[in-house]
Amino acid sequence: MLRTALRNILAHKARLAMTALAVCLGVAFVSGTLVFADSTAEAHRAAASKNFADIAVTVTEKAPEPGSPAQRRTGVLDDMLVGKLARVPGVAAVRPSVDGSATLNAADGTPLRAGRAWSNLAAAYIPGKDGKDSRHPLAEGRPPSHSGELAVDSGTAAAGHFRVGDTITLATDGPVLTKRLVGIVTTDDTRVTAGGTLALFDRATAQKLFSTPGHYTGIDLSAAPGTTAYELADRVAAVLPADRAEATTGHAQAAQQAVLVDTLTRGYEKVPMVFAGVSLFIGSFLIVNTFTMLVARRTRETALLRAIGASRRQVSRSVLLEALVVGLVASAAGFLLGLGIAMVLPGVLGTGGNTLPRGPLVIGPRSLVAAFGVGVGVTVLAAWLPSRRAARIAPVEAMRTAEQPPVATRFRLRGAVGLGLLVLGVGWLVALSGAKDASEENLRNAMAGCALLVAALIVLAPLLAVPVIRLTGRLTGGFGITGRLARENALRDPRRTAATAATLLISTALVTGLAVIGHSTGQALDRQAAAGLGADYVISTRSTMTGIDPSAVRRVADTAGVRTANAVTDSTMFTGGGVRQISGVDPATVNDTMKLDFVSGSAENLAPGRIAISSTLARELAVTTGDVLDIGLGRSERFTEYTVVGVYKDNPIARDALATRTEVARNSLLPGSVQRVLVRADGTEPKTLEAGLHTALGNNPLLQVQDRDQLVREAAGTMADLLNVMYGMLGIGVVISALGIVNTLAMSVAERTREIGALRALGMDRAGIRRMIRLEALTVAGFGTLLGLTGGLFGAWAVGSLANGAIDQYSLTLPWGTLLLVCLISLTFGALAAAVPARRAAALNPLEAVMEA
Amino acid sequence: MTADPLALNPVTGIAAATTDLSKVYGRGDTRVVALDRVSIAFREGEFTAIMGPSGCGKSTLMHCAAGLDSPTSGSVRIGTTELGGLTDRQLTQLRRDRIGFIFQAFNLLPLLTALENITLPMDIAGLHPDQEWLERVVSMVGLAERLGHRPAQLSGGQQQRVAVARALASRPAIVFGDEPTGNLDSRAGAEVLGFLRESVRELGRTVVMVTHDPVAAGYADRVVFLSDGRLVEEMVQPTQDRVLDLMKSLGARSHTG
């Protein structure tokens, strides 16, 4: 039987190619997304990780006791200590460092790669004994030698279009600085090479910026051969002032960092994994469908084998073997194709300012296992059912004539199962629409309900095909007999039509659901942001680690056209349950720039020891005005009791809680700092005012000035990501289903050779045949799209009610443009998919009909 | 359809004709001459049967005459239209408007009802059938009761009657039948042949039929015999017995020759 299986594979090259292509594409999508996920995660990790490989021990200052108001920088890491450490036995080299962060303006004046706070590095150029800094080898120019100079790495220079001699605007945390670029270095710090920036200053300047004059932020030691890092750490610790500095091994730092990086990067895996899951699901469909048709096509052949004495087992084993061979070969090809996809994906997804970090492709074992598991596993599984069907073929089938009436299948069981699933799914979702918040459990329920709904649609699709296609047939009926024939052909085998349409069904349902929810949420957030914002402009730092320099705040207030400028200090607040964002404001003026809608209490009562919280937080913590909350503000690790003096409706400008600015600022990460300035204009021309604001801020790359529209858009920013995901899934779905349509039509054309020949003999021209096949493809695609649209809309409606609980302004709004686009894309690809089978059908000779088979 | 001048052309009276028609397959050692300079005319209002042993080229002759296959040399005319210079599209239109087909395997579209199958050529052309004519044809083949049925619900004889009605429905200048009774039992076959003869006698159609069955040939007005790609004999007003006798003598000649 092995020979028969192999012969079969070789005998039907075209069919084989289609099947292999199906498997290959399925595998390519799955492995491509997985490799992409691994590579992205790795690149993100690299972007956030410092390399500790050649560092045995690092000496740093001990963090001051929490709450101690004393001088933070005790200044113990000076040159004297460096000299002392160099004499510790076992120390091979000592390398002091002054690290901080600096954001640069590119040559065109816009902030350069300012998205991720931890990848805009700054350091001191510290020459070793040979006068060169081994960490930062010079590629061009010379090292910075005084406070007016700096050097950058080659990647930063390229991205910012800097040349040696340029004047660069930058900021470390406070005011804007300008320095002349004197050198370009290279670096192997992955945080920089993965898409960050590096600015180097001379030692004194760096110390002034990031430490205190004469002091370092850390001293790295490497161990002499024969000395372990732990021994060294112990010896070093002995010479350090115990209360003011500490020694940590590189290992410990690396481990600590790994934990941090994992938390930072965990989110990045989700999106590609969703892609992988979707493509796995849809890809499996394609493979199953193709194999089913393949076996169906070979009924006569199989029956002949049975007639000449092959046992059922041999027949089914032959089919399985064939699947195994096809699966193996196609998976290997698919995996290679997947690597290509993984290489292209970052470019496709990283649109706009939010570029993904770069890094080499990472081919993990997971991708390999998944690729072959899917390719071979799904293919063999897909072949298993049809192989049983093949085995059941009676030998007498071989004697039948080629032309057979369409198989009437019993649909009763399918109907019962499908209806059961549908009732369950719909019931689940409807029951959920009573729930009023987007808790994790409710979301999981919603997803389960949606999955049930989609499963029900897939099971019921063959049953729904008849009425739905009858209906769409009204449209294609306009094309006369070709349209009529297209409709009837699509209905000839409803199960095959449904299976072909299933891929489009899934992708359309997903995309429709996401689009509707995304659009509705976006609109709601827009309304919420617009409703809560009393200011015309918001000036903000990109993170709570940096502040707006007080003189800049004054300059903003003095800018012509500014009526009010209110400073806000942002910080974090620990409630027993988690970390929240708290805004420190001036109670007297807060209403000038924030539109707060108090459910109870008011902002006027804010004072030290008193806070106001958002209604969501109030609900989650089950407190209301007058109650007492135990919270920890910012850096302070002690929990203090605060009285709740007001509860306001959720407001993205006020965030989760409000307190007086002095109180928040005292405990913020950068004590006394300001993170936002809310500006109210007096009606000056917006362009002039904006320019004035930028001038007042000295064009600081750390700060952004946003008007109302930009803020509203930012509030909906996560929705833009969702949009990318959505179109990605639509892309996968459309490509795979186009392939499925090609497959189905090619088989169906091959089956109908005589019929098409007869049509040609009776006077239908080639254009007519082509039109007929195209309309059939459109009918199938339309069916899948319509069903998916229905399912997606229903799901969006049901899940939307959860969002309704979370956001008051939520209401179901349909993104007509997107929905129309989705339909158009699906139908266009359906029609395009028909091109090859249509051409083949049109090329058929009318003689085929008259010649006896 | 009555606008077709050729069908009523009193001068020629020829519905279709071939002149020096040759068809050669392959080349070199595998060269097979299927038709060897065949010249034949099919008169209007005549029922012609083409006979001959298997492989004599009778099917090829019909395919070429009907514009389904292209000859190696020689010419074919339908009415006064020379097929040689026509494009595929023109040939398709010619088949649609001026030629009717009856196939051995019926070749009805399984998804269309009997009536839809009958009007299919006109639907393809985007024309409305002549109701009166359609009713006449349908009642002649006795299908009035079964017009809503699909082919799968009809017996073989009934299916071929639908095919006959389809071939006649658009009033083609000529109807070609390729072994129209080949898949039918003798009673159903006799019915179909009766309808074909009726369509010539009563409706004034022209029918050309390929067959190897002497019984079928007995229904024709004229029988032509082909052997090895050549026209060898012709018989007017045949009967089953005379056809059988001639076949025997032809068989003997080819054996001795």
Automatic annotation (TrEMBL), chain A:
<feature type="domain" description="ABC3 transporter permease C-terminal">
    <location>
        <begin position="729"/>
        <end position="846"/>
    </location>
</feature>
<feature type="domain" description="ABC3 transporter permease C-terminal">
    <location>
        <begin position="273"/>
        <end position="395"/>
    </location>
</feature>
<feature type="transmembrane region" description="Helical">
    <location>
        <begin position="365"/>
        <end position="385"/>
    </location>
</feature>
<comment type="similarity">
    <text>Belongs to the ABC-4 integral membrane protein family.</text>
</comment>
<keyword id="KW-1003">Cell membrane</keyword>
<feature type="transmembrane region" description="Helical">
    <location>
        <begin position="416"/>
        <end position="434"/>
    </location>
</feature>
<dbReference type="InterPro" id="IPR003838">
    <property type="entry name" value="ABC3_permease_C"/>
</dbReference>
<feature type="transmembrane region" description="Helical">
    <location>
        <begin position="725"/>
        <end position="746"/>
    </location>
</feature>
<keyword id="KW-0472">Membrane</keyword>
<keyword id="KW-1133">Transmembrane helix</keyword>
<feature type="compositionally biased region" description="Basic and acidic residues">
    <location>
        <begin position="129"/>
        <end position="139"/>
    </location>
</feature>
<keyword id="KW-0812">Transmembrane</keyword>
<feature type="region of interest" description="Disordered">
    <location>
        <begin position="128"/>
        <end position="149"/>
    </location>
</feature>
<dbReference type="Pfam" id="PF02687">
    <property type="entry name" value="FtsX"/>
</dbReference>
<feature type="transmembrane region" description="Helical">
    <location>
        <begin position="273"/>
        <end position="296"/>
    </location>
</feature>
<protein>
    <submittedName>
        <fullName>ABC transporter</fullName>
    </submittedName>
</protein>
<feature type="transmembrane region" description="Helical">
    <location>
        <begin position="819"/>
        <end position="838"/>
    </location>
</feature>
<dbReference type="InterPro" id="IPR050250">
    <property type="entry name" value="Macrolide_Exporter_MacB"/>
</dbReference>
<feature type="transmembrane region" description="Helical">
    <location>
        <begin position="775"/>
        <end position="799"/>
    </location>
</feature>
<feature type="transmembrane region" description="Helical">
    <location>
        <begin position="319"/>
        <end position="345"/>
    </location>
</feature>
<feature type="transmembrane region" description="Helical">
    <location>
        <begin position="497"/>
        <end position="518"/>
    </location>
</feature>
<feature type="transmembrane region" description="Helical">
    <location>
        <begin position="446"/>
        <end position="469"/>
    </location>
</feature>
TrEMBL record, chain B:
<keyword id="KW-0813">Transport</keyword>
<keyword id="KW-0547">Nucleotide-binding</keyword>
<dbReference type="InterPro" id="IPR015854">
    <property type="entry name" value="ABC_transpr_LolD-like"/>
</dbReference>
<dbReference type="Pfam" id="PF00005">
    <property type="entry name" value="ABC_tran"/>
</dbReference>
<protein>
    <submittedName>
        <fullName>ABC transporter ATP-binding protein</fullName>
    </submittedName>
</protein>
<keyword id="KW-0067">ATP-binding</keyword>
<dbReference type="InterPro" id="IPR003593">
    <property type="entry name" value="AAA+_ATPase"/>
</dbReference>
<feature type="domain" description="ABC transporter">
    <location>
        <begin position="16"/>
        <end position="253"/>
    </location>
</feature>
<dbReference type="GO" id="GO:0005524">
    <property type="term" value="F:ATP binding"/>
</dbReference>
<dbReference type="InterPro" id="IPR003439">
    <property type="entry name" value="ABC_transporter-like_ATP-bd"/>
</dbReference>
<dbReference type="InterPro" id="IPR017871">
    <property type="entry name" value="ABC_transporter-like_CS"/>
</dbReference>
<dbReference type="InterPro" id="IPR017911">
    <property type="entry name" value="MacB-like_ATP-bd"/>
</dbReference>
<dbReference type="InterPro" id="IPR027417">
    <property type="entry name" value="P-loop_NTPase"/>
</dbReference>
